[in-house]
Amino acid sequence: MYELENKQVLVVGLGARGRAACELLRGSGAQVLAVDQADTADLRAEAGRLRPLGVEVELGGKLPPNRAFNLAVVSPSVPCNSPFVRELRDRKVPIIGEFELGYQRSQCLSVAIAGTNGKGTTASLVERVLVRSQRKVEVCGQGSRPVCSVAPHTKDLDFLVLQVNSFQLAKTQFFRSAVAVLLNLAPDHRDRYASHADYVRATACLFRNQQAFDWAIIQSEALAQIRAEGVEIPAKVVTFSATDREADVTLDRGLLISKLDGWSGPLLNLDKCRLRGPHNAENLMATLLAGHVLRVPFEPMVEALETAEAGPNCGELLAEINGVQYINDSKATNVDALQKALLSVPGAGQLPNVWLIAGGRDKGLDFHYVGPLLSQRVKGAFLIGEAREKIHAAWGLFTPCTAVGSLLEAVNVAAKNAVPGDVILLSPACSSFDQFRNYQHRGEVFRQAVTELAGAAAKGKTP
Predict the structure, then answer these.
(1) 105-306 fold
(2) Is the pLDDT of residue 420 over 60?
């Protein structure tokens, strides 16, 4: 662990996580310089909030050439091969991420949740189960509050529930979670990793510092990928899977079944749950296992999971207008997430009934492999953002594709084409950073467009 009193610390990247890191460092007595290669109005406003705290801020420039640092805290949005990071390595400055800094200053146990898809849903489920059992819990990490913003208050908590992605894990050093959950390892972030194997190894850092008495809860298919890379897991391992019948907890005809000694038999009936689909079955399995190893009473845990609903931007049903459902799955930032969304939305017998809105910034992914599913489920796709031409080339043989200029235009055109029984699904399979601040902003724009359609329908107007 790093001592921070009177140390010279560099913070690279001034988004929300960079700001939280600066505030925590100053509160711990460090001397802080924050730098960002960009120089925007938002960043200048951020600098104005930080300077009164004693933080030096440099925007749009380079690292100070003759200044020594004891530590550098780098935002997960800054690639490990960026010029800033390479120069820091050349100077032999220790580098960690905001996630690691927050962990080091925390004073409670943690449940960490990683994987390509499902982290937010599973974190919410674990929080729900723990709160129902009278545990004091905060959720933070990737996709939610920065760990650094929560760390000063953790002495009053029982657990931190941490959402963590591969970028954050790659910049950890001492991070260790008492319970570590890995949901899946689908292709993602090919714009940041040279190969899928590199992505697997980065994510496997989740388990690196665990001890023999800790718990590793892993989807069995993801475990096979980790072991193929020669990664050893020191903790006690339990597995789950919606498709692998050899897993410790698996899905059988709508029932979640456990094979664990002393905890065997049916655990949960999906027909009684509000969360549907094989991917949510795995999220529920992981949560049940986390609750089990943390000794949460079984009956209250089942009750909490049966009544849980999809969160914002995660297969969220916004409205049904004139018999057409509008589903917000803005958090689907890769092709695997899109595939799971298509498998979980309501069908219309053997006929396609989905009008899909997809596109955004390409992450270097292969869009072709979802094509056969598109031909079965999708009436037509409306494509937005930087990746729309690439997606059109990949999907054009499987479903009618139309490039449109904006998300708002896509919603309106889809609404004009939809008939009762159809679904208009926002599931972009891309990041949001070409047109939106983040996936939450993208989801909010979609939500507002649907709200306006609902208002027009209530007044008897057609879209």
Answers:
(1) UDP-N-acetylmuramoyl-L-alanine:D-glutamate ligase (3.40.1190)
(2) yes
Dist. CA 209–CA 382, nearest whole Å: 45
CATH, domain range 8-93: 3.40.50.720
Q: How far apart are the first and last CA of the chain?
A: 58
CB count in 10 Å sphere of residue 204: 25
Region 286-315 average pLDDT: 94
Distance CA 374, CA 360 (A): 18
| Angle (deg, nearest 10), helices 278-293 and 335-344 | 100
DSSP string of 103-139? Answer: HHT--SEEEEEESSS-HHHHHHHHHHHHHHTT--EEE
Average of pLDDT values for 426-434? 95
Taking the C-alpha atoms of residue 168 and residue 189, their distance in angstroms, rounded to an integer, is 13
- Encode burial over 354-371: b for 16+ CB neighbours within 10 A, e otherwise: bbbbbbbbbbebebeebe
Render pLDDT for 316-354 as a digit per residue (tens, 0 to 9): 999 999 999 999 999 999 999 999 999 988 876 678 999
- Cα separation, 384 vs 169, in Å, equals 31
pTM of the entire predicted model? 0.87
At 251, which helix (H) or strand (E)? strand 249-252
CB 181 within 8 A of CB 221: no
- CATH of 316-458 among 3.50.50.60, 3.20.20.70, 3.60.21.70, 3.90.190.20: 3.90.190.20
Cβ atoms of 181 and 129 within 8 Å: the answer is no
Closest to 23 (Cα-Cα) out of 61, 50, 63, 52: 50
Domain borders along the chain are: 8-93, 105-306, 316-458
| pLDDT number for residue 463 | 55
